[in-house]
Design goal:
This protein is mostly helical. The chain folds into two domains: 6-97, no CATH class; 98-164, no CATH class. It contains five helices and two strands, in the order H-H-H-H-E-E-H. Strand 1 (100-102) and strand 2 (109-111) form a beta hairpin. The structure holds zinc ion (2 copies). The chain crosses the membrane at residues 7-24, 44-64, 76-95.
C-alpha cells in the first residue's frame, strides 16, 4: 500500500466515478429501450466494472514505484500494463525481478541472495567459510556442514550491516 502514489489513488477514484457516471447517467440518457437486466445484477456489474477501472489506475501507480526498486524499466512496464485485458499486469508479476538493495560501501545494486558485493567485495550477508551456504549472524555452527563459524572471523563490516 505504501507503494501506491497519491496521484494513482486519486486517479483510481476518478476512474471509478467515471464508470459509475457512464453507466448510471450517460448510458440511460442515450438508450431508448429499458435495460433487460434486473436492477440488482446491473448494480453489481457496474460496481465491479468501476472497481476494475480503479484497479487499473492503482496498478499503474504501484508499478511506477515498484519497478525502479527492482531495476526494471519503469516506462516500458507502465505501457505494458495499460494493454487491455490485464495481460501486462500478469506479465509484470510473473517477470518481476527480486528487490534490489544497495551496497553500503560503493552503492552498487545487490540482489538479496548475494553474499558479497560484486563490485567491491564488501560482505553483505553471513556465509559459511567452508561450504559458502548462507548462515544467520547468530549461528555458531554452519547448519549444512557443521563448520565452526567463529573460526571464520567474520569481518567487522558484516556485523555493522547485519544490525540494520
Ligand atoms: Zn560494493
Ligand atoms: Zn558450511
Amino acid at each position: 500500500m505504501r507503494l501506491i502514489p497519491r496521484w494513482s489513488l486519486l486517479g483510481g477514484l476518478v476512474a471509478f466515478a467515471l464508470v459509475q457516471y457512464y453507466f448510471w447517467v450517460f448510458l440511460p440518457s442515450v438508450r431508448t429501450r429499458p435495460p433487460e437486466l434486473p436492477t440488482a445484477l446491473r448494480f453489481y456489474l457496474i460496481l465491479s466494472w468501476g472497481a476494475l477501472a480503479a484497479l487499473y489506475v492503482l496498478m499503474i501507480g504501484y508499478i511506477s514505484n515498484d519497478a525502479p526498486r527492482r531495476g526494471m524499466d519503469t516506462r516500458v512496464w507502465m505501457i505494458c500494463v495499460i494493454m487491455p485485458g490485464g495481460i501486462g499486469a500478469v506479465l509484470y508479476f510473473l517477470l518481476r525481478q527480486p528487490i534490489l538493495s544497495h551496497c553500503p560501501s560503493c552503492g552498487a545494486s545487490i540482489e538479496d541472495h548475494f553474499h558479497f558485493c560484486p563490485h567491491c567485495s564488501w560482505q553483505v550477508a553471513a556465509s559459511c567459510g567452508r561450504c559458502y551456504t548462507s548462515t544467520r549472524v547468530t549461528d555458531l555452527y554452519c547448519s549444512r556442514c557443521g563448520h565452526d563459524l567463529a573460526s571464520d572471523h567474520p569481518p567487522a563490516r558484516l556485523h555493522a550491516f547485519s544490525r540494520e
